Amino acid sequence: MGPGPSDVPRRILDAMARPTIGHLDPAFTDMMEQTKTLLRYAFQTGNKLTFPVSGPGSVGMETCFVNLVEPGDKVIVCINGVFGGRMLENVKRCGGVPVVVEDAWGRAVDAAKVEAAFAANPDTKILAFVHAETSTGAQSDAAALAAIARKHGALTLMDCVTSLGGTPVLIDAWGIDAAYSGSQKCLSCTPGLSPVTFSERAIEKVRARKTPVQSWFMDLNLVLGYWSGEGKRTYHHTAPINPLYGLHEALVMLAEEGIENAWARHRTMHEQLKTGLEKLGLSFVVPEDERLPQLNSVYLPADVDDAACRARLLSEFNLEIGAGLGVLAGKIWRIGLMGASASQKNVDYCLKALAAVLGK
Amino acid sequence: MGPGPSDVPRRILDAMARPTIGHLDPAFTDMMEQTKTLLRYAFQTGNKLTFPVSGPGSVGMETCFVNLVEPGDKVIVCINGVFGGRMLENVKRCGGVPVVVEDAWGRAVDAAKVEAAFAANPDTKILAFVHAETSTGAQSDAAALAAIARKHGALTLMDCVTSLGGTPVLIDAWGIDAAYSGSQKCLSCTPGLSPVTFSERAIEKVRARKTPVQSWFMDLNLVLGYWSGEGKRTYHHTAPINPLYGLHEALVMLAEEGIENAWARHRTMHEQLKTGLEKLGLSFVVPEDERLPQLNSVYLPADVDDAACRARLLSEFNLEIGAGLGVLAGKIWRIGLMGASASQKNVDYCLKALAAVLGK
Fold first, then answer.
1. Above 70 in pLDDT, residue A34?
2. Interface-testing mutation among B1, B6, B16, B63, with chain A (most A C-beta atoms within 10 A)
3. Is residue B23 within 8 angstroms of chain A, CB to CB?
4. Which of residues 53-72 of B touch A (CB under 8 A)?
5. How many CB atoms are located within 10 Å of the residue A299 CB?
6. ipTM of this complex
7. Number of C-alpha atoms within 13 angstroms, CB side, residue A130?
8. What local confidence, expressed as pLDDT, does residue B354 receive?
C-alpha cells in the first residue's frame, strides 16, 4: 500500500507467465491492437496514437518531452512536487526554455499562476503539469489548465501516472494533447510499462520538427512503424512480450469492472481510510478538495520514528507504505489505495496495523 | 527459433509470476545485488557497474551512447548489419562525429579497416562495434578490435545482445569498456531488460563530461543512486519488479549449468543443425570461421516463397524462424539456437519442419 507498485492480482501475474511468443507473431500483434483499444478506454480518448511504451513511467515521460519539445521551445512547467521537478529536468535536457510555475508541495497547481505565466510568455509552445502528484497526493484541475493552454495556442502535456484508472482521466473531454502513465499504479499491473496517448495536434508538432528527436529509442516516427498497425509492421525493438500480456489482462479487468465503477471504488475506499486515519489522529497533507483518493499523504505524529515504524509494518505486518520524498522526506507517509489495493480488506488491515505500530 | 525471443523455460515464467513487492523492499534490493553478481559472471567481468537497464536492448544501447559520447566526440562505428547502423544513428543523435567502417553484411568486422580508420583519425575517442550481428549471424573478433582501440587510447563500446550466454563474451580479458545485451536471447528470459557493464575507464569518461547526459532516464549518474547499492538507495524510477525476478532466475540457471557448458551446448547444437540444413541444400550466409553458433542464417532456395513458408511453419508446426532484415529481407532465413532453444529436441524438430515445408 505504498505509492505503487500496487497489489497485482493473481490473474495478471498468471497472464505474465504465459509462454513467450514472437513480437511479430500474428497472435501477439492481434493482442497489441486489443491493448491499444483498451488503453483508449482507460484514457477516455479516441486518439489513434495510444500505446504502451516499453519502459517504466519515466520513459513514457521522456518520450513525451523528447518528441514534443524542440530546442528553443518555451515550455511552462508546473512544479508542486517531485514529478514536476522531473518534467523540468526533461525540458532542460531537450534544449527547451522552461518557465517554471511553482506551488507548495501538497497543493494543486494554481490555474491563476499558469494564466499569468502565459500572459508573460505568449510564445509558449507547451504547458506541462502533473495531474496527480505521486509525491504528495495532490490532484490538479487538468480541465482548467488544459483550457488555458488551448486559449493561448499551446499544447498540453500531462503526467497521469498515478491517476489513470483510479480517478477520472478524460483526455478528449479535457483537451489534453499528450499524456503518459504507468502500469503499476491504479491499473494494478507490474511496473515496467508506460501507456501514452497523443492527439493529432501533438502528432503534427512532432511531424513538423526541424531537428531530429534526440532519442533513437523514443522517436515516435520510428516506434510507430511497429505499433501503428498500418500496413506492414516493421521491427523497431523487441517488445516486452510477457509484461504486455500482463498489461492486456489488467486492462481487460478494468473494462470488466467498468472504469466509472473503478473510480467509485477508489473514492469509497478512500473515504473509509480517511475516517480511520483521522481517528488515529493523523492529519492529511493535502486540503480535502485537492486530494487524490488513491494516494493518502498524512503527517507523521511528532514523536514517531519514520523508518522504524515502516520497518515494523513491513516485517511484522507484511505491509508496505510509502515514505516522503524530497522536502517531505521523514515528514509524511504515503498510503496507496491503487487498483486492487483499493479494497475493504486492505483498508481494514492497514488501519489495524497502523494502530498497532502507533500504540493506539 | 527466430533471432529472439528464445524459448523461455517454465521455471523463468513462474518466477515472473511471483507476487510483486516494492522496488525498495529489502528482499527486492537483496535480489538486485545477487543479480549484479550473476551478471558479472555472465559478462566474465569484475566491473562494479554491471546491472540490467529497465528497458529492451535498444535502451541498453542508447544508455551506453548517451553517457559515453559527448557532442564533438569522434566515434569509429563498424557497420556490417542492421545493428551497426543503429549504433551510427545513436552517435549522430548524441552529437558525436561518426567515422564509419563498413563491411559486407554477413561478414565479420575487418580489423585492418579499423586500424586504418584509427590511423586516419588519431583523435578518436570511442570504437563501437557489434560482437554478434543479429541481422546476419556474423561474429567479429572482439578481442582484436578492442586491442586496436586500446592501442590508440580509445574506449571500446560493444553490442553483445545476441552473444551473451551463447558464445564467449569476455569483457575483462578482451578489455571492453562498455557493453550491452538483452534478456531474451541466449539468457532465455523474456524480452524487456538490457544487461550492461562499464569499466572504470568508461565511468571516468562519464564523470568527466562537460555537458549533461541528454537523457534523464538513462543518465548513469542518476540510475546509480538506485542500482549502486552504496549507502542509501535513492528512488530513480520504479524498477520492473517481475521481469527482474525472471532475469534473476535465468541467471541462476546459467550459473547452475556453468557458462562454459552453455557455450559448448550452443556449439554442439549448431553443428547438428548445420549438418541438417546442408543436407536440405541450404547454404550459410556467413563464412564458417565468422559464424555465430546461436544464429544460423541461410539463403532461401531460389524457388521458395519466404512469407508463405514462414507462415506455414508457424501455423502448421508452431515454429517461428526469422526473416531477413534490411538488404537481406526476403533473401535469408535466420534460425536461432539461443538459450533453452539450443536443444536436441528443437534442432530435430526444426529440421523436420523445414524438410516438410521445402518438400524434401
1. yes
2. B16
3. yes
4. 54-59, 61-62
5. 16
6. 0.96
7. 33
8. 98
pLDDT of A270 > 90? The answer is yes
Within A121-170, residue ranges assigned H as helices are 142-151
**What's A23's DSSP letter?**
T
Element (H, E) at A86: helix A82-93
Q: Tell me how far CA of residue B355 lies from CA of B144, B279, B301, in angstroms.
A: 39, 10, 12
> Of A159, A165, A169, whose CA–CA distance to A79 is shortest?
A159
Question: For chain B, which domains are there?
Answer: 10-255 (3.40.640.10), 259-357 (3.90.1150.10)
pLDDT in tens, B176-200: 999 999 999 999 999 999 999 999 9
Contacts of A182 in chain B (CB under 8 A): 238
Task: Judge contact between A119 and A147, C-beta under 8 A.
Answer: no
* Predicted pLDDT at A123: 98
Tell me how many residue pairs between chain A and chain B have CB atoms under 8 A apart.
175
Integer CA distances (angstroms), B215 to A191, A305, B51, B142, in order: 20, 37, 18, 28
Rounded to whole angstroms, the Cα distance separating A23 from A151 reads 42
Q: Going edge to edge, which strands form the sheet with A124-130?
A: A49-53, A194-198, A178-180, A155-159, A124-130, A74-79, A97-102
Average pLDDT for A181-187: 98
- Select from B54, B57, B214 the Cβ nearest to the Cβ of A192: B54
CB nearest B5 (choices: A5, A212, A241): A241
